[in-house]
Design brief:
By secondary structure, this protein is of the alpha/beta class. The chain has 4 domains: 1-113, Rossmann fold (3-Layer(aba) Sandwich); 151-211, Helicase, Ruva Protein, domain 3; 217-330, Cobalt-precorrin-4 Transmethylase, domain 1; 336-454, 2-Layer Sandwich (Methyltransferase, Cobalt-precorrin-4 Transmethylase, Domain 2), CATH 3.30.950.10. 36% of the residues lie in helices and 19% in strands. It is built from 17 helices and 19 strands. The strands form 5 sheets. The chain has a 5-stranded parallel beta sheet, with helices on both faces. Helix 10 links the parallel strand 9 (244-247) and strand 10.
C-alpha cells in the first residue's frame, strides 16, 4: 500500500485553493460538499466560480499567490498551470506541516484525493497513488453503475434512525441483521425517498417491512440486442441481486457472466424448431421460485414487451399475486439497426416503421398485407429468417417492388455481426449463399440504401 486511505472531516477545517481553472473548479465543487471554510487565490475567476463564491460565501483573493498566504490552513490544494509555483506552494506547505495536494504531481503531494463515487454521505474513493489514473477512472465508472442513486437517501435515513434502532434492538446481532435486511430491501429503500423526516409511525412501518418474512419477487429484464455495454444500469443492478436467473437463447454469454455468480441459472431458450421449456412451464417456474421467497430474474434478449412474451408472464404473476418489476431493454430493432448503419426512420426515406414477427403462435404468416406496402415505411421482422422466402413472396404478391432494398443482420451489435444487403427479388438467395444463421433481424425499406453511407460498425 503506497498511500494510507483516510477521510477528513472538513466541517471545522480551513482549506486554501490556489488557482481557478477547470481543475481547480472541480476540486472546489467537491470541497464545498464537505466543508464551508474555503479560500481561493487566483488572478481571475470564471463566471461559474464567481457564482460559487457568492452562493457559498467563499473567500476570494483576486491576485497572485504570495508565500505568506500559507499560514493557518489545515489543507492546501495547488491547482495552477505554473509547475514552479505549484512546487513552491508544496515546499512551503510541507515546511509548515500542512497537508498539501498538487494536482497531477503526486511527488509533490502529502495527500491525494482519489477518484470519487458519491451518494451523499456514502463516499468511495479509488487511488493508484498516481501510477494508473486511467485505470482508476475506469474502475470508478464501473462502480458508479453498481450503486443505485437511492442509496443517497438510504444513508441519510439510516443516520437519522440509528439511535432508534439501537433502542429497538438491544442485541448487536439483531441490529446487524436488521441493517443487512434494510439495505438489501429495495422496496423499502425506494419508499424512504418520500420520507423527509422519520416519525414514529413511518419508522414502525419501515421496521415491519424490513423484519417481516421475505416475499419473492420477479424481475423481467431486457438484456438488449446482444452487446453487454448496451445493458441499462437498472438491468445490471438487478442482475446482481437475483437468486435465480431464467434466461433465453438470445442472451449472450458475455451478458450472462454479469449475473450474480452464485445465482441458479436455468436455460429456457426458445427457437422456432426447438422449445427447451414451454411458456406455461416458464410461468410456473417464476411462480414457484417467487413463492419460495426468492428473487427471480427473467432475463430476455431485447425488450420484454416487444415479442418477448413479457405480457403473458406478467398476467400469470398477477393471477398469483407475485410482486414483479419490468426493466425495458434496447430492443433488437433499435440496437441492431443502429449498429448496421440503417436508421429506421428518415425524413427523405421513411416516416413510419412497423415491427413484425416471423414466428407466430400457429406457425402461419397472417398479416394485413396491403398495410405493409405503404410508401415511405420501414418493416422490421423479428425471428423471420426461416420465413423470409414466404415474406418476400407475400410482399411482392401484394404490390411491393421487387427491387425494394432489404438487409438481413446476423448477431447484431456483436463483434461477429454480419450484414447481407439485397433486394426482395434476390435477398433469399444472398442469405443462403452467406450462410446467415439465427439470431437475425430483417429490415425492409428504402432506408437500407443509407447503409453504404452510414455504416460505422465494422
Amino acid at each position: 500500500m503506497d498511500n494510507f486511505p483516510i477521510f477528513i472531516n472538513l466541517k471545522e477545517k480551513s482549506v486554501l485553493v490556489v488557482g481557478a481553472g477547470d481543475i481547480a473548479l472541480r476540486k472546489i465543487v467537491l470541497l464545498i460538499k464537505a466543508g464551508k471554510n474555503i479560500t481561493v487565490i487566483a488572478k481571475s475567476a470564471c463566471l461559474e466560480l464567481k457564482q460559487l463564491i457568492v452562493e457559498h460565501s467563499l473567500i476570494f483573493h483576486q491576485r497572485a499567490f504570495r508565500d505568506d498566504d500559507i499560514t493557518n490552513y489545515d489543507l492546501i490544494i495547488a491547482a495552477t498551470n505554473d509547475q514552479k509555483l505549484n512546487a513552491r506552494i508544496s515546499k512551503i506547505a510541507r515546511h509548515h506541516k500542512i497537508l498539501v495536494n498538487v494536482v497531477d504531481q503526486p511527488k509533490l503531494c502529502t495527500f491525494t484525493m482519489g477518484s470519487i463515487v458519491e451518494r451523499d454521505a456514502l463516499v468511495i474513493a479509488i487511488s493508484s497513488a498516481g501510477k494508473a489514473p486511467v485505470l482508476v477512472r475506469l474502475l470508478r465508472e464501473k462502480i458508479e453503475t453498481l450503486i443505485p442513486s437511492y442509496y443517497s437517501f438510504a444513508v441519510q435515513y439510516a443516520g437519522r434512525i440509528r439511535l432508534d434502532i439501537q433502542s429497538k434492538f438491544k442485541s448487536l446481532k439483531k441490529r446487524r441483521l436488521f441493517w443487512e435486511s434494510f439495505f438489501d430491501n429495495e422496496s423499502v429503500l425506494k419508499k424512504i425517498q418520500l420520507v423527509k423526516k422519520p416519525s414514529p409511525s413511518n419508522l414502525k412501518d419501515i421496521i415491519h417491512h424490513v423484519t417481516k418474512y421475505k416475499t419473492g419477487e420477479v424481475y423481467l429484464v431486457g438484456a438488449g440486442p446482444g452487446e453487454r455495454d448496451l445493458l441499462t444500469l437498472r438491468a445490471l443492478h438487478l442482475m446482481q441481486k437475483c437468486d435465480v436467473c431464467i434466461y433465453d437463447n438470445l442472451v449472450s454469454k458475455e451478458i450472462l457472466e454479469l449475473v450474480r455468480r452464485d445465482a441458479d441459472k436455468i436455460y429456457a431458450g426458445k427457437k422456432r424448431d426447438q422449445h427447451t421449456i414451454e411458456q406455461h412451464k416458464i410461468n410456473e417456474l417464476l411462480i414457484k421460485y417467487a413463492k419460495e421467497g426468492k428473487t427471480v430474474l427473467r432475463l430476455k434478449g431485447g425488450d420484454p414487451f416487444i415479442f418477448g412474451r413479457g405480457g403473458e408472464e406478467i398476467e400469470s404473476l398477477l393471477k398469483n399475486k407475485i410482486n414483479f418489476q419490468v426493466v425495458p431493454g434496447i430492443t433488437a430493432a433499435n440496437g441492431i439497426s443502429a449498429y448496421a448503419g440503417i436508421p429506421l426512420t428518415h425524413r427523405d426515406y421513411a416516416q413510419s416503421c412497423l415491427f413484425l414477427t416471423g414466428h407466430l403462435k400457429d406457425g402461419t404468416l397472417v398479416f394485413d398485407w396491403p398495410k405493409l406496402i405503404a410508401k415511405k415505411q420501414t418493416l422490421v421482422i423479428y425471428m423471420g429468417l426461416l420465413s423470409l422466402p414466404d415474406f418476400v413472396n407475400k410482399l411482392i404478391e401484394h404490390g411491393m417492388s421487387k427491387i425494394m432494398p432489404v438487409a438481413v443482420i446476423e448477431s447484431g451489435t456483436l463483434i461477429t455481426q454480419k450484414v447481407v444487403c439485397g433486394e426482395l427479388k434476390n435477398i433469399s438467395k444472398k442469405v443462403q449463399t452467406a450462410r446467415i444463421k439465427s439470431p437475425a433481424l430483417i429490415i425492409i425499406g428504402e432506408v437500407v440504401r443509407l447503409r453504404s453511407k452510414l455504416n460505422w460498425f465494422a
